[in-house]
Specification:
With 113 residues, the protein is mainly α. The chain has helices at residues 18-28, 33-45, 53-67, 70-85, 89-106. The chain has two domains: 14-68, no CATH class; 69-108, no CATH class.
């Protein structure tokens, strides 16, 4: 499977495994790599337990799906920033709900998409 960016400039999702995901992060969103490695060491390596791997993969799959699309990443961060500055709980909740929905939808991307 190629990891070269498509005409849109957004790289495709890698194969759904931690090795391929780490390689895609290193190539396309290197700003996430240190956090990925630190989280892996803490959640999996230091624990000597592979039970958390599916949850780890799901979390970082969604993180990469958002970060690989700069426009989507900016939009989500804008929603979160506006929520932090909101003057009412209802406004903050509405903005954070939108951001969470976009993150969930991005996390549904399949390999190659």
């Amino acid at each position: 499977m190629t990891t070269a960016p498509r005409p849109s400039g957004i790289p495709p999702m890698p194969e759904r495994n931690t090795k391929a995901l780490r390689a895609a992060i290193a190539e396309h969103t290197p700003q996430l790599l240190a956090d990925f490695d630190t989280h892996w060491k803490w959640a999996i390596g230091d624990a000597h337990d592979i039970a958390p791997v599916p949850a780890f993969l799901a979390q970082w799959w969604a993180e990469f799906a958002v970060a690989r699309d700069p426009a989507l990443d900016r939009h989500i961060h804008d929603l979160e920033s506006r929520a932090a500055d909101a003057t009412t709980n209802a406004e903050a909740t509405q903005l954070l709900t939108q951001a969470a929905h976009l993150r969930r939808e991005a996390g549904k991307a399949e390999p190659g998409q």
